[in-house]
Specification:
single chain; alpha/beta; Rossmann fold; 2 domains; six-stranded parallel sheet; three-stranded parallel sheet; 16% strand; binds nicotinamide-adenine-dinucleotide
């Protein structure tokens, strides 16, 4: 038996198309959602992401600004730009592309973003809302993971959910979202003893580590939903953290890499930007 492929590309395209329609309606009412993307330095991977965000904003009719600053930018200069964007009424979402150069304190920069414009969902207020189960911006990749799980029709409630990876960007928020949906959640990480046994219990397995092929078919419960967040470049090819060929023989549903979680992240960023614009209209 071979697992059903979860087509993140198609699901993300549908979300973008729904958002484009919503943006047209909002614009007809006189509001243009706006996103500012700030990048410091010229990290090639970050440049690719910034350009993708710009392109998707254009596709959806969202106004976007790119602030591309030199690597020599000081923390004070960056904080000054964030403050300026906080008070700019044409901007509803602010995203500071990470990682930042070593001389800048990332947490200080994230803390400076107005929580009302925190479309990345990394501000302590957004993360606190997530813990408290209150409405707020949900980090984009975990939000995308949840949409992919939902697309399978498999209910999270009561299921054994295992999240491998505990980063603040993916693992932790994903675990909280699964808990919010009444899953029984285990979070595994680099110090976990007997990862294979933990994974084998999972009805829903989310892997976000950054190690190619860490999770093999014999670590997966037959029929499980497997969401592979990992993006690794191996011999010029993109692969996930799950060994796809062995895993697909055991899993019930599985995301490919590329074409699984990746396209969802940017779609959820656009979702957050539209939400931010609607919220700020009410203020
Ligand atoms: P990270 O490096 O911040 O965190 C990795 C986590 O994996 C840590 O919590 C660590 O404890 C855990 N870990 C490391 N080795 C382990 C092991 N042997 N067994 C179990 N756990 C182990 O990474 P991140 O930012 O969460 O990203 C993880 C992966 O997801 C990367 O490949 C990244 O490129 C990818 N990613 C993809 C998207 C997307 O849009 N698809 C978005 C963000 C991250």
């Amino acid at each position: 038996m071979s697992a059903v492929l979860i087509d993140g590309k198609a699901i993300a395209a549908q979300i973008r198309s729904d958002l484009a329609k919503q943006v047209r309606e909002i614009k007809a009412g006189g509001l243009v959602p706006g996103l500012a993307v700030v990048m410091v330095g010229d990290d090639p991977a970050s440049s690719v992401y910034v350009n993708m965000k710009k392109r998707v904003c254009e596709e959806l009719g969202i106004y976007s600004e790119q602030h591309l600053l030199p690597a020599s930018t000081t923390q004070d200069e960056l904080l000054g730009l964030v403050r300026q964007l906080n008070s700019d009424p044409s901007i509803h979402g602010i995203l500071v592309q990470l990682p930042l150069p070593g001389h800048i304190d990332e947490q200080a920069v994230i803390a400076e973003i107005s929580p009302r414009k925190d479309v990345d969902g990394f501000h302590a207020v957004s993360l606190g809302s997530l813990v408290a189960g209150q409405p707020g911006f949900v980090p984009c990749t975990p939000a995308g993971v949840m949409r992919l799980i939902k697309s399978t029709g498999v209910e999270v409630q009561g299921k054994e959910c295992v999240v491998v990876g505990r980063s603040i960007i993916v693992g932790k928020p994903t675990a909280l979202l699964l808990l919010q949906e009444s899953g029984t959640v285990t979070v595994c990480h680099s110090k976990t003893v007997d990862l294979a046994a933990k994974c084998r219990q999972a009805d829903i397995l989310v892997v976000a580590v950054g190690r190619p092929g860490l999770i093999k078919g014999d670590m997966i419960k037959p029929g499980a939903v497997v969401i592979d967040v990992g993006i690794n470049r191996v011999e010029g090819r993109l692969v996930g953290d799950v060994e796809f060929e062995t895993a697909r023989e055991v899993a019930g549903y599985i995301t490919p890499v590329p074409g699984g979680v990746g396209p969802m992240t940017i779609a959820m960023l656009m979702h957050n930007t539209v939400q931010a614009a609607l919220m700020q209209r009410q203020d």
